[in-house]
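Researcher: Next entry in the queue.
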Amino acid sequence: MNQPHRNLPMQDESFASAEARWDAVVHRDPSADGRFVYAVSTTGVFCRPCCASRQPLRQNVTFFDSGDEATRAGFRPCKRCAPMGKGAPDAMAARIVRACRLLEQRDVARTDDVARSIGLSPFYFQRLFKKQVGVTPQAYRRRVLAERAKSAIRRAPSVTAAIYDAGYSSSSRFYERAGRELGMSPRSAHAGAIGQLVRYVLRRCSLGLLLVAWTERGVCDVRFGETERETISAIRSRYASATLEREEVPPWVDEVVQAVERPRVLDIPLDIEGTAFQERVWTELRRIPIGETRTYAEVAGAMGAPHAARAVAGACAANNLAVVVPCHRVIRSDGTVSGYRWGPSRKVTLLRREAKIPRA
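Model: Structure for this entry, 360 residues:
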């Protein structure tokens, strides 16, 4: 059994600042291994700087000088990069990290070339990458490019400029999946969702403020908040240039509010925006019966992707439909409650209420 990893005193100040540490995480710098670990509040996990898992949002990351400190703060070690073990990750894991960096480059032509560059056959590379990362190399690269385009498209002079700046080899490759990746047309995304009409209401409930927003297609956002200003600001940030209207609610929106107090199965129209993988996760979450829970690994297994537990956790953290898509029903493998986008105390309360509902 591996002994707890204890970091040696740093020989220099290379990773003394939070900025330097975040840069090492973004670039998965192997030279930073052993200098610090980073913990992610939305998953409850801490990792080595060079971990091959999907990059978290900066606001969800806390740095610790050692794994022991992260453990004392309530985080658990990542199973993929084993930050409490001795030494750097094994050689094969390091190859996958290198593959991720290559797939993120703008001039990558084929994943087969990436496989050969790290010394693996294309077939074995596909299997190993999916086992380690949870998605295929092609899906990983598509997501990297889509995230890059999504970030660039609102500040670029044109949609076409954003497409090529993100690393797409042609505009046709982007438009093949644009609607699914952006949740709206590329031109609408470029304008900050201009032209979209998003209606919303605010309601007081036992867990604070609840905002329910919807488009002509269905419910698009359900979130808890502490203050009216904070909650409305969040929805305005998500739909920066859409037309937002606050108005009286249709009956099915009231069902969402009522479901917070007394859990029930909701059969309402939804306007879900997410990647193909995220939508698969959210569909699986809606299959979890009221009063029951699943672990991240169990959800991944039910989807036919048993090694994608971390990716499942990421999809839960990205869920914009509180209660409607019940990400609160997913817990850690040891049975404890993990992070929740709207606060762990709300998650505990929702689970306690659902546990009291008689099962059919």
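Model: Residues 91 and 97 are 10 Å apart (CA to CA).
Researcher: Noted, moving on.
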